[in-house]
Design goal:
2 copies of one chain form a homodimer.
Chain A: E1 4-10, E2 25-31, E3 40-48, H1 52-56, E4 77-84, E5 94-97, E6 104-107, E7 113-114, H2 131-144, E8 151-155, H3 162-171, E9 175-180, H4 183-190, E10 197-200, H5 207-214, E11 219-224, H6 228-234, E12 238-246, E13 262-264, H7 267-270, E14 275-278, H8 288-300, E15 308-312, H9 317-326, E16 332-336
Chain lengths: 342, 342
């Protein structure tokens, strides 16, 4: 008997300034595919929603292939192997796979890897022990290179990446400052996540003054997920030798930003001899194990906490994605597509 | 008998968007100072005019003390010691000294050093074998890190710094592209300086297209002295792993630039994982000898050429300074204040 497979297909590319939502996707129903030699069939349990996906449905120059109209929307999942034609993989294995927004998918590519359910809740394979956690780890430590006593400012500070970056900054003996966009996020940052100070960019009438108050000794490491007007304000406060770890530019996906470009005063880079560098997690594939082991150890020791916001049912994915880009989630945004194995 | 000393004093700070000129300075006449213990009295032969000086008369945050109203305008000179109370220095020595826009000055600070007149014309101590040459050397090699076969784009490419950076790029086996602002400069760049291609930003109707033509394989090293609209266009063409060696922001001194800030699309940094870093020559004081030896060797071998534009007489300094900021000079801008010793 054929297995039914629901899939979200891209209906049309959103305009650059448009927030994606249900109107850009079609929920299609098809027969689940069959694995070819070397592949497994994966039943999706959790689907990950991430800001980078916005770039995949933008028909602009990008670092990876975009999604074409009619194709399954891209996305990573944690799922269960239900059929295997790949050596080393068996029915019942829990895996990380890049199969997109659907109930079932086949894959055998480099992103397929087994998850150890004893290590941590399997959903963390998409967050702390997945791409967001690894991004925070390598982007902060390699590009930001924080030293004890330095001030580290993190934007999107309560998100899947930012929350881990902020906690690693604290582990490394830094003063950590959060920038986030709601009272609930600010409370989460200074409470559970342990940031030393937090700035609500939506509530703060004078961003520059708020940054000066939160970082009285200036900013040594600027871990930026956002770009936009916050970026512009932070670079006014860089210390000599400061590092900007440019991890993302979420503000460019937000149509409420007045402009996609940041009015950049290059003297703010020149005079403190600051360094800005762009980050892409794919460049760190060879060091994945190092990152996962460090993050898992900190998690077990209770030194890194990690929260998830879980939307229920594959059908909720487009709305949950819009919510993510609006900043409505706390921590990692997931969709529960199917039940965990008992 | 007291020695007469003419000095240019700052009369008022120019507005940020204003080009400095004679109206901002007063030519004063005083008695030459006498050297204290540890100092020498220097008679100015050549005065150096450099873009950084614009920043010194701007009452904004900066990396060095600004010049106050009524003070002698700051500047480095090559001069002759006419009296010495400093061990190791004698009357008749040719020295590099930071004594400002005047006929005579006393000094004993870290910038005082002897020049070997046998090595090269003494005026090169303010150019190729001075701060501009050292800036080109360290900023290109340390921040730009060019590799053979890469494409290096240099702005203010015919200037004292840019002309040296472009020639070092060629020595290192790179494709060197010049951006400059007049037909004469373009001819100088592709002729005497040996750039592979050159773009006249004042004559080019479509800067982006011109950059794409000149750099068909993209830009690996962007050596920028200017900022502004050229900067904005070049970052659209960065290759993966590109380096921006941010050496100066001359465009910010030019009132014809529409804005002091560059509208910066941070995706242009993020997606190619580019690195931008600000440069200041003072950070390289300990490596000065290494730079001077390399530059002098290339000069003697005829691998680096160096031109000077010389204004006659101390009284011409403010106008020559304005000309420099307008881009009217070719190569290093000097003022001949007094005769070389016979």
């Amino acid at each position: 008997m054929a297995i039914k497979n629901r899939r979200w297909l891209l209906k049309r590319h959103p305009d650059p300034a448009e927030l994606p939502g249900p109107e850009h996707f079609t929920l299609d129903e098809a027969k689940a595919p069959e694995p070819a030699e070397g592949q497994v069939l994966v039943r999706t349990i959790y689907l990950s929603l991430d800001p980078y996906m916005r770039g995949r449905i933008n028909p602009a120059r990008n670092y990876a292939q975009g999604v074409a109209v009619g194709e399954v929307m891209t996305g990573r999942v944690i799922g269960e192997v239900t059929a295997s034609r790949r050596p080393g993989y068996e029915r019942g294995d829990i895996v990380h796979a890049n199969i997109g927004w659907q109930d079932y998918g086949v894959t055998g590519d480099a992103e397929l890897r087994k998850i150890d359910p004893k290590l941590a809740p399997i959903s963390t394979g998409l967050g702390l022990l997945g791409m967001p956690g690894l991004t925070a780890y390598f982007c902060l430590l390699d590009l930001g290179a924080p030293k004890p006593g330095e001030t580290v400012l993190v934007t999107a500070a309560s998100g899947a990446v930012g929350s881990v970056a902020g906690q690693i900054a604290k582990i490394k003996g830094c003063r950590a400052i959060a920038v986030a966009g709601s009272a609930a996020k600010i409370a989460y940052c200074t409470g559970e996540l342990g940031y030393d100070a937090a700035i609500d960019y939506n509530a703060e009438p004078d961003l520059a003054a708020a940054i000066a108050r939160a970082a009285p000794k200036g900013v040594d490491v600027f871990f930026d997920n956002v770009g936009g007007s916050v970026h512009q304000a932070v670079i006014e406060r860089l210390n000599v030798g400061a590092r900007i770890a440019l991890c993302g530019v979420m503000s460019q996906y937000n149509p409420t930003e007045r402009s996609r470009a940041v009015p950049y005063n290059l003297r703010n880079i020149l005079i403190p001899r600051a360094r800005m560098q762009g980050f892409l997690i794919y460049d760190y594939a060879a060091r994945e194990r190092e990152g996962l082991e460090a993050l898992a150890a900190w998690y077990r020791e209770g030194r890194i906490k990690f929260r998830e916001t879980i939307a229920e049912g594959l059908e909720s994915a487009p709305l949950a994605f819009r919510g993510l880009l609006r900043g409505e989630n706390l921590g990692k945004q997931l969709v529960r597509v199917g039940p965990e194995p008992i």
